[in-house]
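Researcher: Going back to the complex we discussed earlier. I've cleaned up the inputs and rechecked each line, so this should be the final set. Can you rerun the prediction on the complete assembly and write out the structure?
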Amino acid sequence: MSLFDKFKPIADVRNELNRLGVTPFGAITEQILSATEGIVNGHRVILAGTNNYLGLTFDPECIAAAKKALDEQGTGTTGSRMANGTYAAHAALEQELADFFDCRSAIVFSTGYLATMGMGSTLAGPGDVILLDADCHASIYDGCRLGGAEVIRFKHNDPSDLEKRLRRLGDRAADTLIIAEGIYSMLGDRAPLAEIAAVKRECGGVLLIDEAHSLGMLGKNGRGVAEEDGIESDVDFIVGTFSKSLGATGGYCVSRRPELEQVRFAIRAYIFTASPSPSVIASTRAALRIISQRPELREKLWKNAHRLYNGLKSMGFRIGPEPSPVVATTVDDRDQAIAAWNELMNRGIYVNLVMPPATPTGDCLLRCSVSAAHTSEQIERILEAFDSLEINRDGQQE
Amino acid sequence: MPDYDEFLDRIYEILKPFTKKGVILNEGSELVTELGLTSLQVMELIEQIEDHFDISVPLNILPEISTVQDLARQLEKLTNT
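Model: Rerun complete. Updated structure for the full complex:
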């Protein structure tokens, strides 16, 4: 077997997509017109798959802050946080994140992937145990694998399965790293964090929650599912990203534990990469302030999410278990899913086409993410386009 | 603790639906290349074994497994340590 034989299945899928004349993966956004509109692969579309939950990518305050930083601090830091890449603004953002989450300290990473992968690979090493929810993001799996700890999955959103597995570990349970997410990225379902925290209190463990898809959406202050469920004091580490509700790129970890400051000096994903550019840090700081100052964005996001979820559900599509800013329609047949994605593009709607192994089941997904910036009319247009699709509608209707 | 043969029997039982007509499942059967299991289906196979024997199987053993025999041996090793 040659070095490149393993890529053949990928080449086969790409050739098949090319034959069909569709390019769902790596679609090119030729023009971005606003937070919710663009020209993608030659189609003028409503963007319904960009994770731009609060619609802040074109917010005047964020843009002004980024421009000012660009003028005053240049285009990049050209170095690692550990060397020349820590500017005053990086330190200020870490303090602001710690204050926002009511935590002791924070670490800023260059991407969300590096934050989750870095924390997973660093906190638990050889001889340690990680228990992670089966549906955790690829970056978490990658980190766990890299660190060399014993990695065990518990059934998705099943606290009793977590408890069973912690009990099997006996004395090792106390130091086991438990990892779950707030809202899961593919189906938009929310973790039962209150129950997971109760299991941790009962059996022991160190709890890390990824709030990448819940920051700015839930909780009195927009801190995520842990805040919404009132269990923040049970969470040892929260990780997340700047690339969704904060409209930039980057990642973070916040903690109430003093150990985070020692962990900082051990995370290779933090040490051996360049720090985020000043303009990115500046727009992120502005966006974080906006989460606190404009709770109405959260209300609008949920209004849009409920409308899209209820609309698709009433049409009989097979969608996630609860309303969420991520609304994914399951399609079992791959060719049907590709044709449906193409039809949505023709009708001016961009969503994510997700195929195995990126999906939690063996099915394909037409994944929508809702934004506070979507108008009611845009949500109705998304629904109209879905209503025209010839895909299975065997979901439970209300 | 279950022994190698008990693990083997259970694996055969779970894999029955994946066996193509005319193909006889044996210890040398390759899970991915021969039976056509996806990575997700391998995980589900392990989940069913975990439930049946009330054990936890670390994902770390996956790189060591390509055949039915590999899996049964790893499970035996895991439960005897």
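Model: Worth noting: The radius of gyration of chain B is 12 Å.
Researcher: Good, that matches what I expected from the previous run.
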